[in-house]
Structure formats: structure tokens, C-alpha cells
């Protein structure tokens, strides 16, 4: 009861703070004045007729120095059952993206297996021809004449991915209405092609494997090679699989088809090609804001691609379907564990230092919290430019929580929270994002979180990259957390503590 009473008193003090409280005038800042050109780090799929077209499942394909980012475009045809064409973005630096338009479209035909398209993968043959294996979906079995709603389909390109031609008679069915998300790769040991497919067996999600000697094989020539991986953590479908060898380990990534905070991208690993599957305690890449994540190598580097979804309530609520692209570089530590880190090229693209000021008119540099009560130090309004925040965090004791708050109405105010909070919860060993905060007593539901084991006295290196509604936390080159924070530009931000004895140092902002 004593702790609750102290929080209530602190909260009342915060809520009673007059909005017109005197704040020192900050010197003129250079924030928002950097010419960022056409930089865009969290692109959508495209625009059409003035409307924003978001992206769904991402299908990265690296070829000859260019990352091709195919994706399901959140677009519907003349009827509700026609949807999700494949669109393509290209990039070489993950900072500027070119919209290449629609690559493979759905068919506005009631009897077509391509009435709607689902996730696939892309691969280049030794003869220079490009192949796409993808999901065709039509729930009207009477119209199609087939026993199942989904089939693996095939398309080819002979002009360098400019145009794609469907192989009309390629319809590869499984034994379930869930038979989708093919991932095709070449195995140099067996000298053949393998296809991984998301499906079900014995009321459980499995990833099956099929085998062919050529990418031009017919649907019947793909040999069923059995179950590649069976769900070891539940019965849910394992969507959008990808499989890569990276620095001597073999990794399988897939996404948990569920709802709420469980909808995440998992991974498993092997220490040898034919070894047993293993998992780490933290078996996720990012969290719920990074869904349908796929791994793709680019030379000696490994990346993970996914989408950060729109919200069910517009500016609040849970993650919905379709959103903005998010890309992480993936590093492997000595144990084989994967860590999502900020791409060096992206970090270097936003290295112009800009000034943010405190309520006292001083340049933001460091803040200390004694852990005795709720305290917040306000900064001025967040720029509309792409912004990178950097600071080091040290927790002297593993009590309470502290973090960053966004969306403070009216500019810079001390001892106030905005509507969005990124919380480092040392007692719970979690990092949590809230996007519907009313006050210190009413944080609302968690939007997303990632587990992290904090240590007292250790300094943590922190980057937060913000572009429009999307913000991504990169914590100590160990974990990432993708968030959608609507309406935080042109509003104040700050650092806060509620019972945490901590310090924030080396605060820098870059555009």
C-alpha cells in the first residue's frame, strides 16, 4: 500500500501541473532543417489514386547487388475475393527505395486459383531465368473444381524481372486447405532444389519439404520429401518460412499465426546441416511489430525483412494487417544466437547532429533519476524529419521502470507523460511499448514487448530510429523492437523514471 500511495501522490502532482507552467525559451535549433532528399527507411508498398497502399508479407530476393523486395500489396480488385498482387521495391542502401510497380497480379476470374495471391519466393536459375513460386488462393471450390482452396503456383521471367509469365498448368496441391508460402532454395550438397511449404498434419502446423532436380519441373515432378520441421511450441501454423546457412549455422525462420502479443517471427537453428533443431530462450526476431519476417543473405551479410502493421484503432489499438517495411541486419554471436541490429548504412545516412533542448533551455545531454518518485525531463518537439536518437542507459538498481515518452501535447514539459511510452522494465526483464497512455496510472494495453535481462550498473547503448509513424528501438546490439507511434511529430518528448534509479547520458539526435 505504501508504494501505491507514493505513486498516487506523484501522479496527482503530474496531473495537477498547470499547462501554462513557465518554461525557459530554448535557443533556435537546427532540427528539421536538414535536407534529407528522398530518404525513406520504412516505405509502404505504393500509392494509387491518392490512397496509401500498405504492404503485407515480404519476399526479399538479393540479386547482383540489388535487394528486390517483393511483397503482398494490400490492394483489392473489383470484388472482395480478388486481392494481394505482388509488388516490388528495389534498394541498394536500405535508405532509398524505388517502386517497380506490380510484378505478378491476381486474376479477376471466379474460377482461377489466382483469384488471390499469397506469399512465395524468388530464385535465379543457372541459365539466368528467374522463377517465382507462390500461393494461389480461391475459397470457392465449386468454381475452381479443385478439392483445396490453396495451391503452389509458378511464374518465370526471362527479361531480368521486368515481366513475369505464369505457368498456367502448374498447380501443386497438398492435403490441406492450408498449403502455402513456398520457399525454394538450391542445395549444393544434394545438387537439387528444395521447396518448403507451410501446411498442417495431425492437427498441428508443419513445414513440409519437396524436392526437384530442376526449377522447370512440373507440379507432379516435385517429390514429397516429408516433414522438414514440426511445430515444437504449439499447434499454430508456421507462416512464411525461410531457411539459410550463415557463418556455419543453419537457420529456419517462420511466423506464428496467432493473435495479440504472440504473433511474432521465431527462429530455430542447427549447428550442422543434418543436425537436430535447437532453440534459444529468446527465439524471436524483434516482436509483434515485425511480422512475417524472412531472412535473406546479401553477400556475407544477413538481413531480416518484415512489416510493421497498421493499428486496429487508427492511432491506437493492436497491430492489424499490412503496414510499412522494416529491415534489420542480423548478427550472430559466438553461441549462434541471432541479434537484430541497426544497418550501418542506415546509421551513417543519418549522422547530421541536431539540437534538442530541455525545459531550461539547455541542450539535451544527460539526466539522472534518484528512483524516489516519478520524474520526467521534457524536451522540445520531435521533428518531422527522419530522426535518430542515441543515448546510453545505466540502471543503478533493478527497481521500477524508466524510459522515453513521446506525444506530449504543448511542447516541452517536465514531469509529464505523452500518449506513447517506451518502458525499460528492469524488475520484469522486459522492454515494453505502450501507445495509449493517459497518465502514470493508466498506461493502457501493451502494444508490443521484447524480453531482455538487465544488469545493474551496466551501460547500454541505445538507438531509436523514427520515420513518420514507425519507430524502431535497437538496444545494445542485442534486441530490436518495432513500434507504430501515431502522431508523435511536432509534439514534445522526454525521459522519465518511475521508481528506477538510473541515468541517461550522451544524448544525441541526428537527421
**Hey, roughly how much beta strand do the residues contain?**
over 45%
Helix content estimate: under 10%
Number of helices: 3
Shape: globular
Low-confidence stretches: 1-23
Describe the main β-sheet briefly: 7 strands, antiparallel
Structural class: mainly beta
Q: Please state the average pLDDT score.
A: 94
Termini Cα gap: 45 Å
What oligomeric assembly is this protein in? single chain
Strand elements, count: 34
- Rg on CA atoms, Å: 24 Å
Commentary on this structure:
The strands form eight sheets. Strands 22, 23, 25, 30, 31, 32 and 34 form a seven-stranded antiparallel β-sheet that branches. A six-stranded antiparallel β-sheet has the order 24-33-26-27-28-29, with helices on one face. Residues 1-23 have low confidence and may be disordered. The protein contains three helices and 34 strands. The relative contact order is 0.13. Helix content is 5%, strand content 48%.
Describe this protein with a few key phrases.
mainly beta, seven-stranded antiparallel β-sheet, globular
Give a short overview.
By secondary structure, this protein is mostly beta strands.
Amino acid at each position: 500500500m505504501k508504494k501505491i500511495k507514493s505513486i498516487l501522490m506523484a501522479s496527482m502532482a503530474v496531473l495537477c501541473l498547470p499547462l501554462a507552467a513557465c518554461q525557459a525559451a530554448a535557443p533556435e535549433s537546427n532540427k528539421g532543417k536538414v535536407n534529407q532528399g528522398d530518404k525513406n527507411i520504412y516505405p509502404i508498398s505504393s500509392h494509387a489514386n491518392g490512397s496509401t497502399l500498405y504492404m503485407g508479407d515480404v519476399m526479399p530476393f538479393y540479386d547482383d547487388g540489388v535487394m528486390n523486395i517483393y511483397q503482398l500489396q494490400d490492394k483489392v480488385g473489383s470484388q472482395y475475393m480478388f486481392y494481394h498482387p505482388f509488388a516490388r521495391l528495389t534498394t541498394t542502401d536500405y535508405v532509398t527505395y524505388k517502386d517497380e510497380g506490380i510484378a505478378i497480379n491476381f486474376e479477376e476470374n471466379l474460377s482461377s486459383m489466382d483469384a488471390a495471391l499469397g506469399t512465395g519466393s524468388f530464385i535465379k536459375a543457372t541459365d539466368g531465368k528467374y522463377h517465382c513460386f507462390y500461393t494461389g488462393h480461391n475459397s470457392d471450390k465449386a468454381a475452381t473444381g479443385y478439392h483445396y482452396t490453396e495451391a503452389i503456383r509458378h511464374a518465370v521471367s526471362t527479361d531480368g524481372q521486368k515481366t513475369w509469365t505464369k505457368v498456367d498448368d502448374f498447380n501443386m496441391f497438398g492435403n490441406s486447405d492450408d498449403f502455402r508460402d513456398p520457399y525454394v532454395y538450391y542445395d549444393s550438397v544434394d545438387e537439387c532444389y528444395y521447396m518448403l511449404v507451410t501446411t498442417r498434419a495431425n492437427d498441428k502446423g508443419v513445414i513440409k519439404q519437396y524436392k526437384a532436380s530442376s526449377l522447370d519441373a512440373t507440379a507432379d515432378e516435385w517429390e514429397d520429401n516429408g516433414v522438414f520441421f514440426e511445430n515444437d511450441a504449439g499447434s499454430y501454423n508456421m507462416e512464411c518460412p525461410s531457411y539459410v546457412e550463415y557463418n556455419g549455422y543453419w537457420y529456419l525462420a517462420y511466423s506464428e499465426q496467432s493473435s495479440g502479443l504472440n504473433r511474432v517471427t521465431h527462429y530455430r537453428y542447427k549447428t550442422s546441416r543434418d543436425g537436430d533443431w535447437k532453440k534459444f530462450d529468446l527465439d524471436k526476431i524483434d516482436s509483434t511489430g515485425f511480422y512475417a519476417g524472412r531472412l535473406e543473405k546479401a553477400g556475407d551479410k544477413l538481413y531480416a525483412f518484415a512489416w510493421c502493421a497498421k493499428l486496429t484503432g487508427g492511432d491506437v489499438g493492436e497491430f492489424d494487417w499490412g503496414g510499412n517495411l522494416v529491415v534489420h541486419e542480423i548478427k550472430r554471436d559466438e553461441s549462434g544466437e541471432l541479434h537484430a541490429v541497426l544497418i550501418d548504412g542506415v546509421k551513417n545516412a543519418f549522422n547530421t547532429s541536431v539540437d534538442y533542448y530541455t525545459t531550461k533551455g539547455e541542450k539535451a545531454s544527460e539526466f539522472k533519476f534518484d528512483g524516489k518518485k516519478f520524474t520526467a525531463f521534457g524536451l522540445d518537439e520531435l521533428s518531422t524529419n527522419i530522426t535518430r536518437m542515441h543515448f546510453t542507459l545505466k540502471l543503478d538498481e533493478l527497481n521500477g521502470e524508466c524510459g522515453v515518452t513521446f506525444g506530449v501535447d504543448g511542447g516541452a514539459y517536465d514531469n509529464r507523460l505523452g500518449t506513447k511510452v517506451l518502458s525499460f522494465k528492469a524488475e520484469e526483464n522486459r522492454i515494453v511499448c505502450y501507445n495509449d497512455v493517459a497518465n502514470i496510472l493508466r498506461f493502457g494495453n501493451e502494444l508490443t514487448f521484447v524480453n531482455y535481462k538487465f544488469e545493474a550498473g551496466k551501460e547500454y547503448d541505445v538507438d531509436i530510429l523514427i520515420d513518420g509513424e514507425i519507430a524502431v528501438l535497437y538496444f545494445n546490439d542485442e534486441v530490436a523492437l518495432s513500434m507504430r507511434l501515431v502522431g508523435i511529430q511536432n509534439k514534445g518528448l522526454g525521459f522519465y523514471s518511475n521508481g528506477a534509479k538510473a541515468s541517461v547520458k550522451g544524448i544525441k539526435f541526428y537527421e
